[in-house]
Amino acid sequence: MDGLMTLLSFGPEGWGDDIAAGVLVTVTLALATLPLGLALGFLVALGKKSEERSLRMACGIYTTIFRGLPELLTLFLVYYGAQIGVQRILQLIGTDITIEISAFAAGMVALGAVFSAYASEVFLSAFKAIPAGQYEGAHAVGLSRWQTMRLVIAPQLIRLALPGLSNLWLILLKETALVSVIGLSDILRQTGVAARVTKEAFLFFSLACLLYLVLALLSSIALGAIERRVSAGGPAR
Predict the structure, then answer these.
(1) Phi, psi of 92 (to 5 degrees)
(2) Coil, strand or helix: which one is 222?
(3) What's the rounded Cα separation, in Å, for the pair 236 and 98?
(4) In whole angstroms, what is the distance from residue 174 CA to residue 164 CA?
(5) Over the stretch 97-145, which tens digit does the pLDDT of each residue have?
(6) Phi and psi dihedrals of 141, rounded to 5?
(7) Rounded distance, CA 218 to CA 224, Å?
(8) N or C terminus: which one in the chain shows less Cβ crowding within 10 Å?
């Protein structure tokens, strides 16, 4: 028992420092991906409800691609494919500059693209749940499109979309584990290294499970508090 506790301790004899650093990387990646995914998802949802047919089609293709591809394949395409593509373009224009995409940036872009594809559907459903009379009433009192969106639609949209977005956040938190395959030192990679070095796979992978569950529990508590606060504003009409 003492030996196991030593392995989990902080300091030169334990793996606590490395695993704590992995937790920080996981949480940072998820938090960095969230605003990117939300912004893209909102824009795609607006495109899907646009009157412009070509824009609707482009947004539909976007969501079909990123909802249909496995997340791991999307990550590989961004990390390896984009890097090669940028390098080829630079070669064509006669530039010898070498561009390298970091594992963190690749993970953020890949997970953000997947998150946005699903988030767009959540936003689109929320838009459809808002009665058309809300728009008409806002225009009738002289509000511009931007004012209508900011003052009338956005508060209702957030309230309606929040449960679905909360579920997507929990999924995103788990999907950050994929970045371990491209070398980012997240929870899974750090516990995997510790398991291989110490031959204590059950201990460290059990710890990884526990850490992800704790993060999910803390997220659920925080999201529940946010939902209660938002719901206190009253139901959408």
Answers:
(1) -65, -35
(2) helix
(3) 52
(4) 16
(5) 777 788 999 999 999 999 999 999 999 999 888 887 877 788 888 777 7
(6) -90, 5
(7) 10
(8) N
